[in-house]
Design goal:
2 domains; two-stranded antiparallel sheet; binds zinc ion
Length: 169
């Protein structure tokens, strides 16, 4: 069996992408963009990046989850097309939304107080849910909770790339 020094298994290739995204500067730095390009993955535009930086979906470091997803998708496609059944299975069993959410947990602001605030705000949200529903109609991403920005037209979450927007049906 020929030993390729390059990465040839699914898990380590995914992990390398994850580490690169994680160690990028907030919102993606030049090194990350080069890495994305090496996969032929499309960067978020400057407008999209600025919009995300100003949105309520705060991050402390790292590339945006959507960009990591774009690289993941290319890796998954690559391995799904392999003849090797093991490689194909690991790619096909990859849970994209879960993995992106896991990554998001690592880059979002971390503090003990934050948890208290977010619990409080969940209570508040439930309390005022009826009120909000009547005056305001917002879609939220089922995967990461990002609100769908009303000023833009898009189907997939701009933050994490999931297509599961929750509607109030
Ligand atoms: Zn999302």
């Amino acid at each position: 069996m020929s030993e390729d020094k390059d990465i040839t298994d699914f898990k380590s290739e995914i992990d390398r992408a994850y580490q690169n995204a994680l160690h990028s500067e907030k919102g993606g730095d030049a090194k990350w963009k080069t890495f994305m390009q090496s996969y032929g993955a499309e960067n978020l535009s400057e407008d999209e990046t600025n919009m995300l930086l100003n949105s309520e979906m705060k991050i402390t470091k790292g590339a945006y989850p959507l960009e990591l997803r774009r690289v993941y998708e290319i890796i998954v496609r690559k391995y799904s097309a392999q003849n090797n059944e093991g490689l194909r299975n690991s790619a096909d069993n990859f849970n994209m939304d879960d993995e992106i959410k896991k990554y998001y947990q690592r880059i979002k602001p971390f503090s003990g107080m934050g948890d208290i605030f977010s619990n409080a705000s969940i209570t508040m949200n439930k309390y005022s849910e009826g009120l909000q529903k009547s005056k305001h109609y917002t879609f939220k991403c089922k995967n990461c909770g990002a609100p769908r920005l009303e000023e833009m037209q898009y189907d997939n979450c701009l933050f994490c790339g999931s297509k599961l927007f929750e509607n109030a049906n």
